[in-house]
Write a structure and sequence with these properties.
Bound molecules: fe (ii) ion
Strand content: 25-35%
Largest sheet: 7 strands, antiparallel
Radius of gyration: 18 Å
Number of strands: 15
Order of helices and strands: HEHHEEHHHEEEEEEEEEEEE
Shape: globular
CATH class of the domain at 4-23 and 99-264: Mainly Beta
Structural class: alpha+beta
Strand order of the largest sheet: 1-12-7-14-4-3-2
Length: 279
């Protein structure tokens, strides 16, 4: 599926942008399904707030419980001081996770097939295992920043194997929080795993492993892409997305895929039996 030049670009840069990977009809089907899941979701207090600034906080239980389920998480700024939603529910959800690809028929169809299996093979994932799926809303006005990180932090394998499939469900631009990446930041001295997200009983925490600094928007490049684009990136590639202060949302869908030949760490937050592939 990928040309030799595309495979080389992925090896050199740590990412690859495939415009027009999904048809408008495929994109419309999953966007409609995501909104229906939010409609059907009944929030109960503030247990589902998701914040990358508060990984070890109150969201631990909700996150752990979502490993094999379909759960909606709120934006941190969705609530006022009185604990009530400050925007309508449909505009207050940060993301849906983490087993849409298994549990929801519409997302299951979108997340599997020969084209995705061929891409994984082209990237060297001999036994692809899909651990999680997420719809990330990046809501207008309150969509929070996702600070610099590497996805291998959340999916430790030996050797490193996690690869991210990032599907643009809506146009991602500079003003609504598109991805930023550090080209080549997955290899050499820059390509060191800086943090590890570990589960310790019912608590989750970030462990600092290395002090190599994160890039910044002066050295990184933005990836503005239209809806239907698939962005593939290496688990060690540093990436970031800014807060969305625009009036437009920036829906994306992600799959995190490891290679079954690599040992999956028992300390990873997400554990499940019977992890499946892409075909
Ligand atoms: Fe990420």
């Amino acid at each position: 599926m990928l040309t030799p030049a595309q495979r080389q670009a992925f090896a050199d840069d740590g990412y690859l942008v495939l415009p027009g990977f999904n048809s408008p009809e495929e994109i419309a089907a999953v966007c409609e399904r995501a909104r229906a899941l939010v409609d059907a979701f009944e929030p109960d207090a503030r247990t589902g707030v998701f914040s990358t600034h508060d990984q070890a906080g109150r969201a631990d239980a909700a996150l752990i419980a979502s490993a094999d389920a379909v759960h909606c998480f709120f934006e941190e700024e969705a609530f006022g001081a009185d604990g009530r939603l400050v925007v309508p529910k449909a505009q207050s959800i940060n993301k849906i996770g983490h087993a849409l690809h298994d549990r929801d028929p519409v997302f299951r169809r979108f997340s599997h097939g020969p084209r995705l299996a061929a891409l994984a093979a082209d990237l060297g994932l001999e036994r692809p295992q899909v651990w999680q799926s997420q719809v990330i809303f990046k809501q207008p006005g309150i969509g929070g920043e996702v600070r610099w990180h590497q996805d291998a932090t959340f999916f430790v394998t030996d050797p490193v194997s996690v690869t991210t499939f990032w599907f643009a469900l809506e146009d991602a631009a500079l003003d609504n929080g598109c991805l930023w990446v550090e080209p080549g930041g997955h290899r050499g001295a820059r390509g060191v795993l800086r943090e590890r997200f570990v589960r310790d009983g019912q608590r989750l925490r970030i462990e600092r492993l290395d002090s190599t600094p994160w890039p910044d928007t002066g050295t990184a490049v933005p990836l503005p892409v239209p809806a239907g684009t698939l962005v593939l990136f290496h688990g060690l590639l540093p990436h970031y997305s800014a807060a969305n202060r625009s009036p437009r949302s920036r829906l994306a869908y992600t799959l995190h895929v490891t290679d079954g030949r690599a040992a999956y760490a028992a300390s990873n937050w997400l554990q499940r039996s019977g992890v499946g592939g892409l075909d």
